[in-house]
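Minutes, project check-in
Item: structure for the 211-residue chain
Input as provided by the requester:
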Amino acid sequence: MQAADTDPVRAGAEAITARFMARAKDCGQTLPYTPGVVVDSRPTLIAFYFDDRSIHASRWSEMPPPIQGMMAAWAAQGTLGLTPEGQFAEVFNSLLVPHELGHFAASANGREKDQAFWDGEVYANRVAIAFWKGEPGGEAALMARLDNYNAFLDALPNPVPEGQEPRAWFEANYEALGNDPQAYGWYQGLFMREARAQAANDDFCQLIAPL
């Protein structure tokens, strides 16, 4: 394992976090702290943990064969022509970092209070989309990335048992789904499409502002 200060996964997520915090400051928003980044390759692949105020990211080389095999299928279905390792890095070490920071923002601005899990995931994606739209390449680059993201998510099997309603099933099984990348990925396809539908009217500063 590389030293933490030279770990490209950690450095990349920290750079995105720094830009997120700078953008928040430009909006006149003072978030309570700058989240850290821990690379510990948990089953969730990427998540925000409030107990240590950190994004927990994953490293491709530490993924078990089933995950690497799954990513090979995802890369083949993607639209950016990435290798499995490249697809993993694109999604879990880059695109979804501001999604996790969206959960952090929700806790700071009061939106998390009494928020359903489903709505929290859509909100985090709305924050991520608004963040990336303001980055170099803007909306055009982001739309290509989202097309790549949804191409493989749309091909995943529906994990919802027959006769169950998707939202109710998600709310009842949130923690278990978070540890199943394929099932959770299917749901993230729904969340990203819902967030994308609202993107034209979303503004980063307004999204992260206190209620």
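Outcome recorded: The first strand starts at residue 36 and ends at 39.
No further action items on this chain.
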